[in-house]
Structures are given as structure tokens and as C-alpha cells.
UniProtKB/TrEMBL annotation:
It comes from the Bacteria. Coiled coil: none annotated. InterPro entries: Alkaline_phosphatase_core_sf, DUF1501, TAT_signal. This is Uncharacterized protein.
Length: 466
């Protein structure tokens, strides 16, 4: 039994300081301070396995997309279930998906769809905790009391030195997400907004000339202590802190991180293929980051921000209740940029030889009610269709990871209500992710009360993806 016995150590920086620094500030000497906290928290993992070159891109569809309008169409169901959209064939025989995903259809041999994952919680925060941590909660707090998958990967791999942040996300936490008892040091380096926008720059990755001079001075001072360290450092602690300084200096004075975030290094054709919008450029940035060595990237595709749309008929995320938006107008706006961004990312993962070491997961926290609801919209003031929360059935897309693709894993009942064949749990998907990354799902951390908590309480890797 292994346990992290110092998982909560606030150290010299307050929570407010972390928030002001963007959770993972890489400016001045702040990075060295932050990385030093990780060592002082005694959270290095010497048993990280031998698959540390692997990476995961998690496209998070906050709010819960409708499986009935994406990857699990039911054309033979009654009209109030099947809805207004039709299925189309794909490159994978027998796999049909929504007509609004024609670019997906062209690369269907390079992804698999899991149709039989389900769980029991239909509230956003609790559903996100359930899906992303593998644990049930009664809390509706948007900050989970359990660490979710991104922070766990960050904690298990925080000893890696690759010149780029180990965990990057376009938002600090999913609704119902967070690092919980792993501490703020397991939170992501946050890159929000549209990374493809003109003049966009990643904060805290550049260093002024005056700060560079200070860094050089500090480095020289550290080097001048070499003989002193050899004489007095009996347990390696000073060397560990020195290594952290070296890592911080390396990230600040090398070009690797800045180049990874610089989308201008991509061709115009590539950027066009992903789509000149927030979602497309985030997907492209995710690919660049995992190529550079980042272990875990979470990119949110929520508000499509498409100019010229009727704002009173669309919603800010995938939570398209009838009161929030017109389901079919919203999807007509939302699905084309989603289709382009995800299909381009899948194409690139394979074309660039990343498919063995990069796993792509596309999901939200649950599906939507199989039966359509019609109500007056809060903003539109007219009757419009929508679907409500539904954890009884959902669809998840996976690509790469060295796994067999072109599969449909599991199925749902005739009206899309419940998992029917090969019923799976979110923990099985998480177990698949950890297995791929060489992370022991039974590794234990101590929670704030001192109880040993395994990464996953249960779950087995999905055999079709191994």
C-alpha cells in the first residue's frame, strides 16, 4: 500500500496568490516558488511507470451534449424521441452519426464511439464529479471534494521536466472539478480565450530583460554554492530544491514553452482546417502541447461565439433545455465548428504519428433526455424544443491511444433511454485513461482527514480499447 502522507501543505503562498497568478504563474521567479511547494509537499511519485511519454487530450463539453443528436441517433424511434435530425453513414460500416457531423464521418475509421456509459447523477456538479473523479458526491458545490482526472495526472507526473507545463486547460476547473486534497499545485496552467486571435499571447511565458538579468544573477549565486552543498547536504534536500530552481529557470529562459503555445508557427492551411474560431484553435493548441511534452490537456468547447447568430436561441454551453435555447437552431450553430475542430484534431493525431502515444477523449458529464421537451424559452419567449439532463445514457468519442479504432462499443435501448449491451461506468473510461498513461489506479493519496484514498475506488479498463 502506497500513500501520499503530506498531500495538504499550503506553504508560503495563499489561495489568493494562486488565483492572482493564474493558478500556474510562469513569470519572474514565481514558478520556482510554485515548483518548490510541490517538492515540499512530498508528492513526488517514484513509481510512475514506464509510459510517461503518453498524453491525453480531453475535449470537455460542459453541460452534457445530446447523444441523440451526436453519436447515437435513433431514426426508428417515435418522432418525439428521434427529433428533427437524421443519421449519415461513415467510413466505418455500421456506424452512423448525426448529419451535422460530415467531417467526423470521413475519419470514422480513426475513432471509436462508446454508447453504453451511464451513471446515476443528473445534476451538473455532481455529474461532473462522478464522471471526472469516479466518485459519488452529495455536494452541489462547483469545487469537488475529490480530485478529478487532470489534477491526478498532474500530481502523478509532476516530477517530469519537459520544458512545458505538464497540465494545461482552457479553464481552471470543470464545474464540479478541481484538485481537492491534492492542493493547488495540481491545478492546470490556464490558457483561456481564443489562442488563435490576432495579438493573442500567453501570459507569464515571457520575461523582461531586467528579470532575465536577475535570473542570471540568481543562477550564478546558486552555482557559487556548489562546494557548500557538497559539504553540508547529507539528505539531498538542497539538491532537490536546486533542481526545482533549474526547472523553473529552464522553462523561463528556453523557447520550448513559448514555441508550443505559438500558433503562428502553423501553416495558414492547417489553421483553416481546424477552423478560425476558438474551438478550432484550442484543438490545434492541444495538439501542439502534447507534441511538445504536455501530459494532459483539457480544452473546453462551450460557447461557440459565432458572429451573426440569434443569441436568444442559443445557450452558452451544451445544456440545451427548452428554456435555455432552441435545440435545433443551437445545434445548427454549434455543430459545424465542433465537427471541424474535432475531425481535424483526429486527422492530425494520425497523420503526425501521435496515435500510439496520444489518447483523445470527447465527452460531457452526461447525455440528454431521450424524449424532447417543448417549453417557452426564457430569452426567446416562444415555444421551442430542448432536452433535459440524462445520465442513463451518453456517448463518448475516443481516438488514438494505440487502440483499435472504427468501433461502436456498447448500445442503448431503442429509444436511447438506457445502456443495453456492454454496460459501462465512467470509472471504466477513467481506468482506461490511467492504464494508457501507466498510472496505477490503486495508488493512494491521503485526504484532508488522513484517510487513504485510491485514485479510483473501482473500474476496469475497457477491453475493446486495450
Amino acid at each position: 500500500m502506497s500513500a501520499d502522507r503530506s498531500v495538504y501543505c499550503p506553504g508560503p503562498m495563499s489561495r489568493r496568490s494562486f488565483l492572482q497568478a493564474g493558478y500556474m504563474a510562469l513569470g519572474g521567479l514565481g514558478l520556482a516558488d510554485l515548483l518548490r511547494q510541490r517538492v515540499l509537499a512530498n508528492s513526488l511519485n517514484p513509481q510512475a511507470g514506464n509510459r510517461e511519454d503518453t498524453a491525453v487530450i480531453f475535449i470537455w463539453l460542459l453541460g452534457g451534449p445530446s447523444h441523440m443528436e451526436t453519436y447515437d441517433m435513433k431514426p426508428n424511434a417515435p418522432s418525439d424521441y428521434r427529433g428533427q435530425l437524421n443519421p449519415i453513414a461513415t467510413r466505418t460500416p455500421g456506424m452512423e452519426i448525426c448529419e451535422l457531423l460530415p467531417l467526423h464521418a470521413k475519419v470514422a475509421d480513426k475513432f471509436s464511439i462508446i454508447r453504453s456509459i451511464s451513471h446515476e447523477d443528473s445534476q451538473h456538479a455532481r455529474g461532473s464529479v462522478r464522471f471526472l473523479s469516479g466518485r459519488k458526491t452529495q455536494s452541489v458545490n462547483p469545487v469537488s471534494e475529490f480530485p478529478t482526472v487532470g489534477p491526478i495526472v498532474a500530481k502523478m507526473r509532476e516530477h517530469r521536466r519537459v520544458g512545458v507545463p505538464n497540465y494545461v486547460a482552457s479553464s481552471p476547473r470543470a464545474y464540479g472539478g478541481g484538485s481537492a486534497y491534492l492542493g493547488e499545485s495540481a491545478m492546470p496552467f490556464v490558457v483561456g480565450g481564443n489562442p488563435g486571435a490576432p495579438g493573442y499571447s500567453v501570459p507569464n511565458l515571457s520575461v523582461s530583460n531586467s528579470v532575465k538579468d536577475r535570473l542570471d544573477d540568481r543562477l550564478g549565486l546558486l552555482q557559487s554554492f556548489d562546494s557548500f552543498r557538497r559539504d553540508v547536504d547529507l539528505h539531498g534536500s538542497m539538491q532537490a530544491l536546486d533542481n526545482i530552481n533549474e526547472q523553473a529557470l529552464g522553462m523561463l529562459t528556453s523557447d520550448k514553452a513559448r514555441q508550443a503555445f505559438d500558433l503562428s508557427q502553423e501553416s495558414e492551411a492547417t489553421r483553416d482546417r481546424y477552423g478560425r474560431h476558438k474551438w478550432g484553435q484550442r484543438a490545434l493548441l492541444a495538439r501542439r502541447l502534447v507534441e511538445a511534452g504536455t501530459s494532459f490537456v483539457t480544452m473546453y468547447m462551450n460557447n461557440p461565439d459565432i458572429p451573426g447568430t440569434q443569441k436568444n436561441r442559443i445557450h452558452s454551453n451544451w445544456d440545451i433545455h427548452a428554456i435555455n435555447g432552441d435545440l435545433y437552431y443551437d445545434l445548427s450553430v454549434r455543430m459545424p465548428p465542433f465537427d471541424r475542430a474535432v475531425s481535424a484534431l483526429i486527422e492530425d493525431i494520425y497523420a503526425r504519428g501521435l496515435d500510439k502515444r496520444v489518447l483523445l477523449v470527447v465527452s460531457g458529464e452526461f447525455g440528454r433526455t431521450p424524449r424532447i421537451d417543448v417549453k417557452p424559452g426564457t430569452k426567446s419567449k416562444v415555444m421551442q424544443p430542448g432536452r433535459d439532463h440524462w445520465p442513463g445514457a451518453m456517448s463518448v468519442l475516443v481516438s488514438g491511444g494505440g487502440a483499435p479504432m472504427g468501433q461502436v462499443i456498447g448500445s442503448t435501448t431503442a429509444k436511447g433511454e438506457y445502456a443495453k449491451d456492454n454496460k459501462l461506468d465512467p470509472n471504466d473510461l477513467l481506468a482506461t485513461v490511467y492504464h494508457f498513461m501507466g498510472i496505477d489506479q490503486n495508488h493512494e493519496f491521503l485526504d484532508r482527514s488522513g484517510r487513504p484514498m485510491p485514485i479510483l475506488p473501482h473500474g476496469s479498463p475497457i477491453k475493446e480499447l486495450i
